[in-house]
């Protein structure tokens, strides 16, 4: 990370409803011998100065991971924007030195090991812009670097009914960073591969097992 933006907190977004997986916390499902969340934490923890989990309900179910669990600031499962807002608030309360948060969902076990570094390289000198990840020409808004100083603006947007990340992000200077596939064992995987279905879990499990064997 560049010296001007070295204070970055990571926030893992675990607030989804997981409908296509049958509900519940899909990030706690077993994947090649470990909960899927463990794989996400392993790839993210060295990229940031601190790491928290954004989730609603009892935090006790995440006690195994020894990370702060921060709920959405408003009830009703309002989507990932509320999780980003929760992360911004948490980072600003934790330390005034935190200038940004880096977010990723907890159902993406192959995130690039240089995700935050590459996003951070696209930060303006004043740290005012949002930076989002992309692969195969498709932007993935939940994988982003967010200036904490936008928390009040985001709070107003969420309270006013904005739910889609891009509806809010596009009102601010935003840059996109393209990422190539990652090698997981013998498999070339999209770095933002999302395990939305049991079939996706099978694909991810197969790739990780070839890496472990």
Question: Which percent bin holds the helix content?
Answer: 25-40%
How many domains make up the coordinates? 1
The CATH topology annotation reads as: Spore Coat Polysaccharide Biosynthesis Protein SpsA, Chain A
CATH homologous superfamily?
A: Spore Coat Polysaccharide Biosynthesis Protein SpsA, Chain A
**Shape category:** globular
Name the beta content range: 15-25%
Uncertain residue ranges: 1-5
Cα-based radius of gyration, to the nearest Å: 16 Å
Structural class: alpha/beta
What is the CATH architecture term?
Alpha-Beta Complex
End-to-end C-alpha gap? 33 Å
Mean pLDDT: 91
The CATH top-level class label: Alpha Beta
Explain what this protein looks like in three dimensions.
- This protein is of the alpha/beta class.
- It has one domain: Spore Coat Polysaccharide Biosynthesis Protein SpsA, Chain A (Alpha-Beta Complex).
- 28% of the residues lie in helices and 24% in strands.
- The strands form 3 sheets. The protein has a 7-stranded mixed beta sheet, with helices on both faces. Strands 2-3 form a two-stranded antiparallel ribbon. The protein has a two-stranded antiparallel sheet with strand order 10-11.
- A hairpin with a 2-residue loop joins strand 7 and strand 8 (138-147).
- Helix 2 (80-94) runs antiparallel to helix 4 (151-159).
- It is globular and about 45 Å long.
- The termini are far apart.
- The relative contact order is 0.18.
- The model is unreliable at 1-5 (pLDDT under 50).
């Amino acid at each position: 990370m560049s010296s001007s933006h070295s204070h970055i907190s990571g926030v893992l977004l675990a607030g989804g409803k997981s409908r296509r997986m049958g509900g519940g916390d899909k990030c706690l499902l077993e994947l090649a011998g470990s909960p899927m969340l463990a794989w996400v934490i392993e790839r993210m923890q060295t990229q940031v100065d601190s790491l928290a989990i954004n989730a609603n309900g009892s935090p006790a179910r995440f006690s195994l991971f020894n990370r702060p669990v921060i709920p959405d600031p408003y009830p009703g499962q309002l989507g990932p924007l509320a999780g980003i807002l929760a992360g911004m608030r948490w980072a600003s309360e934790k330390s005034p030195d935190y200038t940004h948060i880096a977010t990723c969902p907890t159902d993406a076990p192959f995130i690039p090991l240089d995700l935050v570094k590459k996003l951070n390289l696209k930060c303006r000198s004043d740290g005012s812009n949002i930076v989002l990840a992309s692969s195969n020409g498709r932007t993935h808004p939940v994988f982003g670097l967010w200036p904490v100083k936008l928390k009040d603006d985001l709070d107003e947007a969420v309270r006013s009914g904005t739910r889609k990340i891009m509806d809010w992000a596009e009102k601010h200077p935003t840059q996109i960073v393209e990422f190539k596939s990652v090698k997981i064992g013998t498999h070339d995987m999209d770095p933002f591969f999302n395990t939305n279905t049991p079939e996706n879990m099978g694909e991810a499990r197969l790739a990780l097992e070839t890496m472990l064997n």
